[in-house]
Predict the structure.
Amino acid sequence: MTHIITSLCLRDSGCVEVCPVECIMPGKPVEEWPMFYIDPDTCIDCGACVPECPYAAIFPEDEVPAAYTAKGGEFISRIDLVGDYEGTNHHGDKVVLKTVKKLAAGEVVDLTKDTPANYDYFSKGPGYSAKD
Ligand code: SF4
Ligand code: SF4
């Protein structure tokens, strides 16, 4: 199994620093890969990244919610969305996303749709060549 980063990720980068096997990478280019991604072949399921995420975006693969109910005000970030987000990451660096949607309280989102991207980034996306 592996852990999975979902579209609640706003590129804060905090998870990267605690991963003992360095298997979390920022998606690039951001317009095509707006989240951070976990290499499923390297993740050892230690769970250290989960409490580091300020947006609670990381789950064990078998616990990714198919019906995530929004508290209201959180963002999801997917390439098929068109909203703007500006913030800062763990290091105080600016984060700008153009592919977000602000969720309304009670809105239900299927976060399992984000699981394939974690695999794809490393099997056929930019993470594939980065691993060589
Ligand atoms: S800590 Fe959360 S928001 Fe930050 S990069 Fe990791 S998954 Fe994304
Ligand atoms: S569960 Fe552990 S090994 Fe897997 S991505 Fe998170 S910190 Fe890294």
